[in-house]
Amino acid sequence: MKRWNIFLSANVKNVIIKKVELAATVVKKSQYPEDRLPEIAFAGRSNVGKSSLLNLLINRRGFARVSGNPGKTRTINFYEINEQFRIVDLPGYGYAKASKSLTETWGPMIEEYLKGRHGLRKVVQLVDIRHDPTAQDIQMYEYLKFYGLDGLVVATKADKVSKSEAPRRISAIKRALGISGSDKVIPVSVLKRTGHEELLKEIGLLCDF
Ligand code: GTP
Ligand code: MG
User: Fold this and answer.
1) DSSP letter at 156?
2) With 54 labelled, which of 60, 74, 127, 131 sits at a CA distance of 20 to 30 A?
3) Distance 137 CA to ligand 1 centre (A)
């Protein structure tokens, strides 16, 4: 943990992502990687920017597929970094045009992962900085709380609000999700490449390196 802190305070950009691998693309438990590497999952509404943020964190444009249309990521994708930890990109929820059968499979698919995954340290919940969290966002956060996986929220697309508006939006998000004082809401912008270093630091601390 100490080593990571020194690393970051020296120069965050020196955090070297040496190797990124799409270790698995799965729809069920039997397909998950079997080892016990620490994992951090990304959850949030479809189109909120999960895959985009992942690309920014690993500094690989287009590595995870991104789309202007919601419903792009439909599998659980395990991205292995430096053979040390994984970021797990979950399919987005709340996709209005998703067929009923897809909605019925996504819920249980995400739940199966969150419930019993060894190695899962924390779930980063992503919400759009412009909007109040939806009922599904709130439900997801309650769910994460129940499993002790809550406490790290990212407000995406921070470039879409003014600097003066941002703190007000963060407060509104905190209020809606019932986030206590010490828990974080980190604003990020993939467009402006801001906020990701703070998130990477949190992930480093959670994964003990
Ligand atoms: P699903 O895979 O459908 O769950 O979506 P996702 O959450 O992975 O979203 P994705 O990363 O595919 O991004 C959705 C859209 O938002 C794309 O058009 C991105 O270019 C855009 N986007 C993502 N992050 C940002 C951001 O920080 N700023 C702006 N302006 N647009 C963003
Ligand atoms: Mg995606």
Assistant:
1) E
2) 131
3) 16
User: For residue 23, what are the contacts with CB-CB under 8 A and spacing of at least 6?
Assistant: 33, 78, 79, 80, 86
Query: What is the residue with the minimal CA distance to atom 22 of ligand 1?
Result: 49
In the chain, the amino acid numbered 108 is P
Assess contact for 194 and 158: CB atoms under 8 A.
yes
The third-level CATH classification (topology) of the domain covering 3-206 is Rossmann fold (3.40.50)
Pull the structure tokens for residue 134: 């939806």
Rounded CA separation 61/80 (Å): 16
Closest CA to 152 of 119, 172, 123, 187: 123
User: pLDDT by residue (tens digit) across 148-198?
Assistant: 999 899 999 999 999 999 999 999 999 999 997 778 899 999 999 999 999
